[in-house]
Every structure is written in structure tokens, then in C-alpha cells.
Amino acid sequence: MKIIIFIIFLIVFAYLNYSFIYQPRKDRIDNLDQQIYSLNNQIAEGKRIAARLEDLKLEYQELTERLVFVEVLLPKEKDIPDFLVLLQETMDEFNIDFSNFSPQNLTQERDAIYARLPINLTYTANYFEIIKFLDRLENFPRIVDVRDLRLNPTGDEGNVNVTMNMFTYVLMKGNQ
Predict the structure, then answer these.
(1) Spatial CA neighbour of 40 closest among 32, 28, 29
(2) Each residue of 117-175: pLDDT tens digit?
(3) Residue 141 to residues 33, 93, 95, 118, Cα–Cα distance (Å)
(4) Domain ranges (residues) in the chain
(5) What percent of the chain is helix, strand and coil (3-state, nearest 5)?
(6) How far apart are the first and last CA of the chain?
(7) Per CATH, which fold does 75-175 belong to?
């Protein structure tokens, strides 16, 4: 009888030891092994990035320089009046008599860092002055995209009525 009680006691002790000591510790060890594996992967990724640090610094510097260049070509919203004044001064320089000069509302495509500013122009000028004006727009300090250019002769010799739609692009502040 003592042997049976001892065996039952030994089985209960083994069961309690397994259930309350061994299994929780084994689960904790497995969990810690998983964390170690994850941390080792993060360390390896960090070492790969650290090995490329100089290349990444150069790439960052190049991207920063490109951003400065793009900011010159793309005015910010607050610079739009300056752009419009520059455009009007250029038209005055080439003796362009505009009858319609109407900037429209900004339109921004989804996820774009820029918006388009459409400008509708209707003017009368000498054919050669129009060519010079368009050439100046091509070399403008801001990006200007001329679309839908229509020329109609007037009764005056050498003058042409011009209707054109053009776009300039504006760097949106919220996406920088």
C-alpha cells in the first residue's frame, strides 16, 4: 500500500512539476528564442544599412540638391503672383496686346507633390513677336507647358489673334 501511495505521489508530483514548472518555462524559452531570432534579423538588417551608410548619405545629398533644383522650377503657391507678374512683363516686352489673361484654379492629382495652374490667354501680336514670346516661355525660369495653341489671322497685316492654354506647375507645401 505504501508503494502504491508513493507511486501515486510520484505521479502527482511529476504531473504538477511538468504542468506548473517545466511547461511554462519551456514556453517562455521558446518565446525568448523567437525574440532572439527576430532581434538577430533586425541586427543583421541594421548592419546591412550601416554598411551602405556612406552610399545613402551621398544619395540623400543628391536628392536634396535635386529638390532645390525642382523648387526653383516649381514655384510654391505663395509665388504664383510673382510668376504671373513675370509672365505679364514678358508679354509687355514683346508688345503682346492681350485681351484675355485668366489664371484658373489649381488642380492637383492624387498623391502628386505638385499641382497644375492652368492659364488661358488670348492676345494679338505680330507673328515674329509670338515666336519670340513662345521661345522665351520655353526658357522661362519656371516650368511652362503650352497646350492648345490656335492662330487666327486678323485684318491687320502681320498680326495674328492667338488663343492658347498653358500650364505652370506649383509645388504643394503639404507634400514636402
Answers:
(1) 32
(2) 888 989 888 888 888 988 988 888 788 888 889 998 887 777 889 999 998 888 776 54
(3) 60, 16, 20, 17
(4) 2-51, 75-175
(5) 60, 25, 15
(6) 84
(7) Alpha-Beta Plaits (3.30.70)
